[in-house]
Amino acid sequence: MKWDDIKLFLAVVEQGSLSAAARELKLGQPTLSRRIGELESLIGEALFIRQTQGVTLTSAGEKLLPAAQRMAEWANEATQSLSKQKQQLSGKIKIAAPPGVALDFVVPLAQTLQQHHPQLRIEVLAGIETLNLSRGEADISLRTRAPTDDDLICLDQIKAPMRILASSAYIKQLPDSYTLDDLDWICWSDSHQELQMVQELKKQVKQFNPVFTSNDFNIQMAACRAGLGVMLLAKVPPIFPHLNQLHELNIAHGFSSEAELFVVCHKRHRHLPKVAIVLEAISAQFALARRQMA
């Protein structure tokens, strides 16, 4: 199917009749009717029910309409991006990310993007739930697991080893010799027991019984900074400033797994200019982080 024919189809849908669409497109009605007929022949089904007062969509037309509207969106974005005059990127981009990543990575990223694209609006959806990109719940997802949906693509990723962190006050009160079982653990609440980090702690720490739990990562971090206990966290680079307030324990822990963060996007959105510019900025920060961890 040619985009020019899809534009004619959308015009008829929007105007409600062949005659009104022909006037809008500045085409003769016989020409428009012929072109629509050729599109219907190509598809193998009628797209419109012709009536005296206009047209209505058939079931085939209803099926075609969402894809045609997306094609119009892509065409509009492509026209803007290829314009000789510099276009100001605008609109909202929804980024889903775990709470710590949202706080220390996405917020500074949004600040940088705003300096270069002031009309771009960033909406951060912080949480550990995996949002559905196919349904438009987010445009970009920073998630801890690789996508399994064929319509989603992983555009970048970063890995980091695990380490145990605590406040300086907590470390000072530790004995000269201690084991994992002697530490006061801060962890996720019972509603999040399926998380990889919780499972790793249960495997490595005998009779694992955390001293403090929360379903909010930032609450856990506050408890750790206050000296209530220790946390198992990824060894991330200095671009995550809230971790600079904590210190790594010098202890052999045996945690073998690595923390991973994937940049995920839907195939049909990755080349939209406003999405592409955010993906480019994320990849640049990931590249910086990898150099700092090397």
Automatic annotation (TrEMBL):
GO terms for biological process: DNA-templated transcription. This is LysR substrate binding domain. It comes from the Bacteria. Belongs to the LysR transcriptional regulatory family. Pfam families: HTH_1, LysR_substrate. Residues 1-58 form the HTH lysR-type domain. SUPFAM superfamilies: Periplasmic binding protein-like II, Winged helix' DNA-binding domain. GO terms for molecular function: DNA-binding transcription factor activity; sequence-specific DNA binding. It comes from Solimicrobium silvestre. Keywords: DNA-binding, Transcription, Transcription regulation. PROSITE patterns: HTH_LYSR (PS50931). Gene3D superfamilies: 3.40.190.290, Winged helix-like DNA-binding domain superfamily/Winged helix DNA-binding domain (1.10.10.10). Signal peptide: none annotated.
